[in-house]
TrEMBL record:
Residues 13-239 form the ABC transporter domain. Belongs to the ABC transporter superfamily. It comes from Sorangium cellulosum (Polyangium cellulosum). GO terms for molecular function: ATP binding; ATP hydrolysis activity. InterPro entries: ABC_transporter-like_ATP-bd, ABC_transporter_ATP-binding, P-loop_NTPase. This is ABC transporter ATP-binding protein. Keywords: ATP-binding, Nodulation, Nucleotide-binding, Transport.
């Protein structure tokens, strides 16, 4: 692999999974082109969008119907040496045969040329070392996935980590342990691909978020997720770029004290705010103000300044995490805007 070349490259890839009933397909890829380097990449979508097909291709368990899938310049489906440097967490756990977790892991470690005694060292970073003494058949679905995740994260000299929903149905004491390990591997030069339908999980760890929509990579956004549900085109004359949304929780001190209404009026003349709306909470004790703006930090400062001027008591300011419904709606607008 030449310096600067992507670790993972998909070139005009067409594929379908076989995850449905009787081997029928649930989704597929249609002419996907994608290049991924070191770092954490989240592919956001559902099985119907082609996430299962993508996972099978990257793991080297299937070949594309058309196009090429390359990992470090080689096709993983045809190269056992390449597959040996890919860590995989599948939809369902696929642990090697073994009566106990220790024996099952020993099979996997011997295949890597590693001593079986290193099994505990793979489980300990995720806090699941006690599983080593368990019978494999006694593991729950989530426990078996946690063992498989430990094996995936312990691949020697990893080129690629292909992880399907590593924060769901995984029995680890804290997801922070998983996030920390993913970050360390990415910082060490690996390409970490997190395939998920959770916008929360994508935002929590990714450097870049690639939206997979009905078989195509429709958008690539920064990992902070601020633009996932943003408008792709100006929303008003002279207002360029995507929008972000902020929610403000306001403590209503009393009927005569300034509150959400006063804050909304003050922000209506602020150049940092494009639009806003508010609603009163239960029993009138609090209100929520929703603000749309071009810049999150500038809007947050405008809110703080206006609250201080109007003597409004703020309880919290936060950016809501968009749902998959929000992302799909924004993606449809994005595609409509870029099509000729």
């Amino acid at each position: 692999m030449s310096p600067g070349a992507p670790i993972v490259a998909l070139e005009g890839v067409r594929a379908r999974d076989s995850a449905g009933e009787a081997g029928r397909s649930r989704g597929g890829l249609v002419g996907v082109a994608l290049a991924l380097g070191p770092g954490v990449h989240a592919v956001l979508g559902a099985p119907e969008d082609g996430t299962l097909a993508l996972a099978e291709l990257l793991a080297g368990r299937a070949a594309p119907l058309a196009g090429r899938v390359l990992v470090a310049g080689r096709e993983p489906f045809r190269s056992a040496a390449t597959r040996a440097r890919i860590g995989v967490l599948s939809v369902a756990p696929e642990l090697p045969d073994g009566a106990s977790v220790a024996s099952s892991m020993s099979v996997a470690l011997r295949a890597r040329g590693a001593p079986p005694s290193s099994a505990a060292a793979l489980l300990e970073p995720l806090g699941v070392a006690p599983l080593l003494a368990r019978r494999t058949a006694s593991l729950s679905f989530a426990e078996a996935r946690s063992v498989e995740l430990s094996l995936a994260l312990g691949v020697p000299q990893p080129l690629l980590l292909c992880l399907f929903e590593p924060f769901a149905d995984v029995a680890v004491p804290s997801t922070e342990l998983v996030r920390g390990r993913l970050r360390a591997l990415a910082d060490g030069g690996a390409c970490v691909v997190l395939i998920t339908s959770s916008t929360v999980d994508a935002k929590a760890v990714a450097d870049r978020i690639h939206v997979l929509d009905r078989g195509v990579i429709a958008r690539t956004e920064p990992g902070d997720g601020e633009r996932l549900a943003g408008a792709p085109i100006p929303v008003a004359p002279g207002a360029g770029g995507p929008e972000v949304e902020l929610h403000v929780l306001i403590h209503e001190r009393g009927p005569d004290a300034p509150g959400a209404r006063a804050l909304a009026a003050a922000l209506a003349v602020s150049p940092a705010v494009r639009a806003g709306s508010w609603e009163q909470g239960p029993a009138g004790a609090s209100s929520t103000l929703r603000i749309r703006a071009a810049d999150r930090e500038a809007a947050a400062l405008a809110i703080l300044d206006a609250a201080a001027r109007e003597d409004v008591t703020l309880a919290a300011i936060w950016s809501p995490t968009p749902s998959m419904h929000d992302v799909r709606a924004a993606t449809a607008l994005h595609l409509a805007a870029v099509r000729p």
